[in-house]
């Protein structure tokens, strides 16, 4: 108690020093609170932007797909699956996707290929969930062609590296549903920017 009384009396002996020390402590605390608030808000915003770009908050797939990532473990999108996805509590919506890896090159002689990740999407559903479709800044997103011609949209940097523009054709080599090598020609109908310029979206695979 003696030490407490001495400390309390000492606060009043130099009021200017006490006021400056208190103000400095309060100011430091306010700065710390502001810094923590900005950091927490930025972190949440970064997560929201990342999720809205393409991944979504969670992925529904058959058991084994995460380990093997082959079409042998693809989830059939039948009526029962659609009803189950529609009934997920709290979900804003869902969109089907097919993902694969492959090689892409311009449809010209002596063209060099580049490794890409391929996304087959339902553009109408994807537009309500993520920013991927809205990232197309030139041309349009790929769609099913009634004439049977394949369409594709490329990352802007990827298109530039391949030396192709909207209207040109590219060749994509990947694996089919049986694991065999498959190749087809695609017409470039759009380019986009999402921060990962070597992402490719198109209708190289059928999505119901």
Task: Characterise the protein shown here.
This protein has 208 residues and is an alpha+beta fold. It has six helices and seven strands, in the order H-H-H-H-E-E-H-E-E-H-E-E-E. The chain has helices at residues 2-13, 15-53, 65-68, 79-86, 123-129, 156-162; strands at 97-106, 114-121, 136-139, 151-155, 169-175, 181-192, 199-202. The chain has a six-stranded mixed β-barrel with strand order 1-2-7-4-6-5. Strand 1 (97-106) and strand 2 form a beta hairpin. The termini are far apart.
* Helix percent band: 25-40%
The main sheet orders its strands as 1-2-7-4-6-5
N-C termini distance: 79 Å
Task: Tell me how many strands there are.
Answer: 7
Net shape? elongated
Arithmetic mean of pLDDT: 82
User: Quaternary arrangement of the chains shown?
Assistant: single chain
Tally of separate helices: 6
What does the main sheet amount to?
Answer: 6 strands, mixed, barrel
Proportion in β-strands: 15-25%
What is this structure, in a nutshell?
With 208 residues, this protein is an alpha+beta fold. Helices cover 37% and strands 24% of the residues. The chain starts with a helix and ends in a 6-residue tail after the last strand.
Ordered list of secondary-structure elements with their pairings:
Blueprint: H1 2-13, H2 15-53, H3 65-68, H4 79-86, E1 97-106, E2 114-121, H5 123-129, E3 136-139, E4 151-155, H6 156-162, E5 169-175, E6 181-192, E7 199-202
Parallel strand pairs: 2-7, 4-6
Antiparallel strand pairs: 1-2, 1-5, 3-6, 4-7, 5-6
Give short descriptive properties of this protein.
disordered C terminus; 6 helices; alpha+beta; single chain; 6-stranded mixed barrel; elongated; 7 strands; 208 residues
